Amino acid sequence: MSVLRLTRFKADPKDADQVLARRAELIDAIRAKFPGLTEARLARVDDESWVDVWRWESTAALEAAVAGAHSMPETPAAFAIVRDASVEVLELIDER
Predict the structure, then answer these.
(1) 24 located within any domain
(2) pTM for this prediction
(3) Which residues of the chain, if any, have pLDDT below 50?
């Protein structure tokens, strides 16, 4: 069953291009090293608030990636320009 990892964060509006670039680098690195990331969607709530939703094939795939991501240089680089990050993991129950 698919799971979603939802990350809410804030970033300075002047860093928007860097948010996009570093996120893309992180996604590419995660996909190269860990199977199971099926989609990643980013939405901006307002000038400084963002919601990033990554869909995983399974909880096991998500957990493996989270455990390994800490040792990848792309992870601290991506999170260095954001603040107030919070994470929720959601089990996808229904979609139509």
Answers:
(1) yes
(2) 0.94
(3) none
